[in-house]
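From the shared-data thread, chain only:
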Amino acid sequence: MFRNVAELVELAETNKVKIAEIMIRQEVEVTGLTREQIIAKMDTNLTVMEEAIQRGLNGVRSHSGLTGGDAVLLQNYIKSGKALSGSILLDAVSKAVATNEVNAAMGIICATPTAGSAGVVPGTLFAIKEQLKPSRQEMIEFLFTSAAFGFVVANNASISGAAGGCQAEVGSASGMAAAAIVEMAGGSPKQAAEAMAITLKNMLGLVCDPVAGLVEVPCVKRNAMGASNAITAADMALAGISSKIPCDEVIHAMFLIGQAMPSSLKETAEGGLAATPTGRRLEQEIFGDTIKLKDLVLA
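Structure, as tokens:
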């Protein structure tokens, strides 16, 4: 039904429906499932997200010891009344972190669009829930709107850190969340596209450099920044601010940047933060002699 953001927006405007509705119709057409089955599957995803956030906010720690407990620290900081950021933004950050800490602790999450970027969409959704008071159906629609924009990115660029760097993972997730926030807040399909463009173009060039090859450092904190980026971009779009570069061109630029990135900066743990002295020390502490064996085999 749609191949790019321009077509997605046009379909929503022409049919006078939400972007979420266009995505639901496409899923019905492509999968052959009924509308009720499609919505039920997304409802299940929403439940998984909610449970992951709650588990993370209760406190978890990864097996490597690299990550865990930061979501709790953020919630305590919010309650202290000393936070400089707005409560919604910081709540989104904490819930994004909570989700990715659960992922690092081998818990169940919903990849949106990947495991490494799984915190941004649910983190923002469950934070703005406190202000917008959406129904369960509206929360499900939020996920379909996110999915529509993720679908475009996946088919015109990449959502893989190994293929396009972290811009393709957390960058895409942030844009997906921003667009969905706008729609839930009553913005137009065009404003949703503007939010996606504003978000993504400010994450272009973000590399994927996981310390010790684990989806923990800096991945968890990048989800935090992605969530804050999404909310800021959504507010900008709702204020009437537009991106000078159209959304589809921003997505294509991301694709080209990903193609130009060296492999050392695309999930290989051979460059960036993973290659710092501390990054290598942590890798050695976690894997020990396994690292030496790997180097010997490669030699």
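The CA atoms of residues 201 and 250 lie 6 Å apart.
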